TrEMBL record:
Belongs to the E2F/DP family. Residues 99-168, 244-330 form the E2F/DP family winged-helix DNA-binding domain. This is Transcription factor E2F8. The keyword rRNA processing does not apply. GO terms for biological process: negative regulation of DNA-templated transcription; positive regulation of macromolecule metabolic process; positive regulation of nucleobase-containing compound metabolic process; sprouting angiogenesis. One of its GO terms (cellular component) is RNA polymerase II transcription regulator complex. It comes from Circaetus pectoralis (black-chested snake-eagle). It is found in: Nucleus. InterPro entries: E2F, E2F_WHTH_DNA-bd_dom, WH-like_DNA-bd_sf, WH_DNA-bd_sf. Residues 342-363, 430-483, 547-586, 779-835 are annotated as: Disordered.
Amino acid sequence: RSVLKTPLKQAATSHSILTEIQPDCQPLTTPPKPKEILPADPWTPTSNLKMLISAASPEIRSREQRRELSNNSREVLQAKHCLQEHLSGDEYEKSQPSRKEKSLGLLCHKFLARYPDYPSTAENNYICLDEVAEELNVERRRIYDIVNVLESLHMVSRLAKNRYAWHGRHNLSKTLQALKKVGEENKYTQQIQMIKKREYEHEFDLDGERNEEMARSFGSNEHSEMSFVELPGMEFRAASVNSRKDKSLRVMSQKFVMLFLVSTPQIVSLEVAAKILIGEDQLEDLDKSKFKTKIRRLYDIANVLSSLELIKKVHVTEERGRKPAFKWTGPDVLPNVQDTKLETTSTSCPPPISESIPSKEQCSKNLFPSRGKQNFTRHPSLIKLVKTIENDRRKIQSAPTSPVKMSASTDQNLSALPSKMAQVPAIAKHQLEGQSKKAREMKLSRSALESNQLSPEVVPKPEPPRVAAPSQQPALAQPPAVCPPSHSSVSPVILPHTPAGVSYAIYLHPSQAHTVTTYSPSFMLQPLPCANVTGIKSINSKVLNKTTTEEGDNQVTTDDPTKSLTAKERPPIKSETSSQRCLKRSQALQEDNSIKKCRSDEESLDTSLTFFPSGYLIPLTQCTHGNKAGFSNKEKAGICSLQHTTYSSPIAGVIPVTASELKAVNIPAFQITPLNIMLSPTSIAAAPVLSNSCLNSSNTSSAHNPSSSVLNFTLQHVGLIPAGVQVPANPVLQHMPVSLQPESVSYSSENMNLQEEKVSKNILQLFDRDGLSEKYSAPSVPKELQQPQPVTENFFRTPGGPNTVSSLSANSDGTDRMSQGTLYIPQRKLEVSED
DNA sequence: TGATCCCGCCAACGT
DNA sequence: ACGTTGGCGGGATCA
């Protein structure tokens, strides 16, 4: 008899029946393993799939059809295959749910079939894990695997225990952009090259002792701090769970994706991915079992990514033989085109303020390129030293800062807003075409703009005492003057970049956060502005990249860069959306404020929290700003005061601790690097400008100057990091000069990151203290869900420095891919074969 | 065989 | 104390 597929529920039933023998056969709970008992029958995955599809809404169905047509997904093929088998007459026994039928990939397909790729915001797309698990007839554990990776892509977000919200692919492009940035900042490209190179070397000499070297080099790679990359709109939901938890799958998934986005042939072998991921987590011990486990996990992730059609399995044939690998088949992720446009627009649009901000951002970028830590990190001994220091700090760590500070930071955010706001309109315009809906948003944005103009005034007024605010403003206005030299020298054209679209936050591990925290709770305010800056990429890097290198193993061919955003992707919209969201949020906040005016510190915390994220994330900031702007200054002031209740003058309290302090604190710890010595004139010049913001201090130390960067690079890599690292010494690496610059740039950012981390850390603590995290997820308020919740956990940047987006922009032209500090590796021919 | 990766134990967490 | 999450790796399947 042919096996038929019992409907899902029935299947469940059968399951339980099967398990009769065993005690607890709860359909819902993980059934005891029936194993051979398994009936021979029932539902084939295919059948289930079909049923699901048929049952699904037309929308879903159509989507599914498309999928099948495309035949892109391996799972589908497999499913078909299975089906055929059944049809052909294999029997029941044979049809026993084979392993394949139970594969995560298939399961994921089923899961995805239940939800539309682009759910309307209106509908509540809640996901109840229990339900899903039951309906799909799988253990909940499996659902977690799927959901976790979906979460890493922000396709879902956790609302509460057992509940998730489905976002579909609306956030996908943004997420990918963010991931790409982070990946670039982490120099994944280089790491990949390093690993490949190492492998190559291995071919010749027997390894064994080599492990040491490997370990060392890996250790250097560790960008351990990075945890979870967040998006503006989605900030906190994901974080609702404890930060510590965001460890593995989620993060691994993001990193894995980053590898694809960063590597030129967008093909990543499991082996390489595993090595890199391991390297990040723990330096050294490449122990075999760990490697194996990593691989296992990667398969899990790969399966769901495959189901999402973001990647597909291929085999890379090298001299060694065939190695399993995956090829990126998802959308091309370019630096935000829109952003660029925006930039341009903003530039053209005169509002001084708007312009000023971008410039400021640029400055910050330059100052804080990316990843400063790495410099010393590279050297084992240095790493240890750093770690030790960090640990000490951790221990010393002070109590969470008062909420008030947060609010102060909010204020700062305001200043940043204008520029962003200015951009909004442009974005809206672009989006207009596709979405009629957007019109509304346009309005919002426009209003926001208007508000922006007001903003400048607002910012300064509220807090006269505050040093930072005033200074910032001027700085912003002038940016060109100060910063220009640096970028202009490199590439004037590119300068104007603002990465508005891609702001993101990274979740740090508590431990790391601590480290940062130690620095200065008090500075919290300061950091925020920086955060704003952060979103922006460093121009420098871009320029540097521009230099371009041709080496890469580009053979494989990636899709043309030009392609970039497809109409279907809606990134532009998003930016708008985010801004809109921000506005909403800000409004909400205001309401909150008005309502809660007299609340205690905790309350203020909430508020501040809300703000904070916004501050950090560009979109949010804008919103906040807009809101405030909308209100009379007085109101703003009132709000501020409310938030700061505790402090007589919120600003004052905050202000005291400014850049100078930060510098004092931060520098000692992190600036130890030789790099400091070489300051480029440019950087120095820039420093003054940024001085207001805490960030500056750190940046100053770093050198952007090409020559200096080269020196640094040389020192570090050659002197400090002899072995596996890409060293000029290596004959192969002829292109070093080019690559060097990016490196140098990246360094400075580190400091900034630290500061941010600090801030975030503090924030975190606050949250924890209040236990706010789940607070907002209240089921009762669906609407709320739509908007980003104020609650967040630590979202910060990684050492790699999300701040530096530069790489992204650089890539846009398509030239730079290999440029970043990449080593040229002798290439074996790569042959990619599909399965 | 090596590549895949299902399964579910059990610890960390949350409530 | 109990339910939820999800790290982890043994060992079954697949190719």
